[in-house]
Structure formats: structure tokens, C-alpha cells
Design brief:
Shape: globular
Number of helices: 2
Helix content: 10-25%
Length: about 140
């Protein structure tokens, strides 16, 4: 018997597959866009491209963070037109989502065929000295 989490991910993946036009292949790379990086989708090829709001996808939680658009964008990028999906708006534990909800999009990406995930994050570094100062950076963690 399939777990509840797998069943929810399967329902979400099925909805997404049925929502994609024939011109969009299943993605091989998933990108989780952190704060300030939603504009990355403007570098994707415009045709074909499909955007699906999280609110339309069964079981998908919606981000409550200001500026997070809460949508999946399917497209291609680069000279080889690599198939990708981007989460424009990540989910956070501090928003009140449980870990099963936060990790649901990763399960769904795997069911869609994603083999590589790139997760980005907006980082703030604090430096303590005579004065407290900070600097803002974007970080990428990949394996």
C-alpha cells in the first residue's frame, strides 16, 4: 500500500502532467528559486513555457512570504534547450507548513522525471566587530 505522502505526490504529478501542453517535455532539472531569484524564469525560453499556480495543484501548499509567487514554471533553457521546472517561491517551516508539505514539491518533481535539483537561497551574513554589519548574498547548493 502506498504511503499517504506518495499518494498526494502522485495526484499532484498527474494533475501537472495533464496540464502541460504536448509541446513541453517532462523536466530533467528542477530549480527551487529562493527570495529574489524568481526573475530567473525570464532567462528561460519563452516558447514553450507553462506556468501553474501552486493553488491549482492538488495538495500543494502556497507560500505566504511576500514576493514568492507560488507557481511552477515549465520551460527550456540554454543552447541545448534543456527541459526544466522552476519553483518560483519556496516553502518554509516558519510559515506553518509541516515537513511533509514542504517536501511535497520535491517528491512531485521526482515523479515528473527530474534527476537534478538546484536549490537557491538568499543568505544574509552578519559580521560582528566594532559595528554590527551585514551583507546580502545569493547562494547555490548543489551536488
Amino acid at each position: 500500500m502506498a504511503s499517504v505522502h506518495y499518494s498526494m505526490a502522485s495526484e499532484a504529478a498527474e494533475y501537472i502532467i495533464n496540464s502541460l501542453p504536448q509541446t513541453i517535455s517532462r523536466p530533467r532539472i528542477g530549480i527551487i528559486c529562493g527570495s529574489g531569484l524568481g526573475g530567473l524564469v525570464s532567462t528561460f525560453h519563452a516558447n514553450p513555457q507553462k506556468s501553474i499556480p501552486y493553488a491549482n495543484i492538488p495538495h500543494f501548499p502556497v507560500s505566504t512570504v511576500e514576493g514568492h509567487e507560488s507557481r511552477l514554471v515549465f520551460a527550456t533553457m540554454g543552447e541545448k534547450r534543456t527541459e526544466i521546472v522552476a519553483m518560483v517561491g519556496r516553502l518554509h517551516f516558519y510559515e506553518g507548513h509541516d515537513m511533509a508539505a514542504i517536501t511535497l514539491p520535491i517528491r512531485v518533481m521526482r515523479l515528473l522525471g527530474v534527476k537534478i535539483i538546484i536549490s537557491t537561497s538568499h543568505l544574509v551574513f552578519l559580521t560582528f566587530s566594532d559595528q554590527c554589519s551585514w551583507r546580502s548574498q545569493y547562494g547555490v547548493l548543489s551536488r
